[in-house]
Amino acid sequence: MSKEDFNIEPIYYCKSCLSLRIRDVAHLSDSEYCDECGSTDIGITDIDTWNTLYREKYKHDFLN
After folding, report:
1. pLDDT score at 31
2. What ranges do the domains of the chain cover?
3. C-alpha distances out from residue 54 to 15, 18, 20, 26, 57, Å
């Protein structure tokens, strides 16, 4: 997989704390939640967009 392919791969993230630690309760539909803060407000985006959101919120990059 090339870097470009990796960057367009969708990721799930918490809209509240921007964590990537999203869990799913397998037997329930629409049951994703954040393993960091417990929020159920989950978004889907690409890694570059997520990193921009993270930088804006925390004033530094999560990724090197």
Report:
1. 86
2. 3-58
3. 10, 7, 11, 28, 5
